Amino acid sequence: MCFVHTHEEETTLNRQKINNSCKRKAVDSVVEKPSKIIRRELTHHKNEGNLLMSDIKLISRNVQNARASCYPKIPNSRKEVHNTLSSIDVKTNRDEKFIFENDDLNEIIIFSCDTNIEFLKKLEIVYIDGTFNYCDKNCTQLYTIHGLKNGIYIPLMFCFLPDKTLL
């Protein structure tokens, strides 16, 4: 009597363990690259079975899907853009509020912070530029305000406008 015994269940269990660990870490640390998370987990679990390249691709896709669930869905209309911006708290790396204006009545969105506004008030030279080519699909114009300080152009405000006539 001969029994053929394979360890597919063990390999599957190990893959699930690594997969779940990677997904959890991807959600906890959204700034770390998925590939780095996966490499670290594979190193940490190196004695827990051999994974195939298809397993690694599956884990990578699952990590990206888990991370995508942390972000709001991409809006399809101006109204959705305003609703999404109203529901999230956008801050700078210095913990300042970054949504300066979210006017859903006039459909204007301005990104800036108090530090940039104060800096803008003190400048002698300011550059303003409107573009139609590099703009969100739900807006018509991206209007930017830059300051010139010590020979360096500094972007200070980003205005998304619904048409070409508002500013």
User: Into which percentage range does the β-strand content fall?
Assistant: 15-25%
Number of helices: 5
The SS-based structural class is: alpha+beta
Order of helices and strands: HHHHEEHEEE
Low-confidence stretches: none
* Largest sheet descriptor: 5 strands, antiparallel
Task: Write a brief caption for the model.
The protein is α+β, with helices and mostly antiparallel strands.
Describe, in plain words, how this protein is organized in 3D.
This protein is of the alpha+beta class and 167 residues long. It folds into 2 domains: 61 residues; 84 residues, no CATH class. It has a 5-stranded antiparallel β-sheet, with helices on both faces. A hairpin with a 2-residue loop joins strand 4 and strand 5. Helix 1 packs across helix 2 and helix 1 packs parallel to helix 3. The chain is elongated and about 65 Å long. The chain starts with 7 loop residues before the first helix and ends in a 6-residue tail after the last strand.
Topology:
Blueprint: H1 8-28, H2 34-44, H3 53-68, H4 78-87, E1 99-103, E2 108-111, H5 114-122, E3 126-131, E4 141-149, E5 152-161
Antiparallel strand pairs: 1-2, 2-5, 3-4, 4-5
Helix pairs in contact: 1-2, 1-3
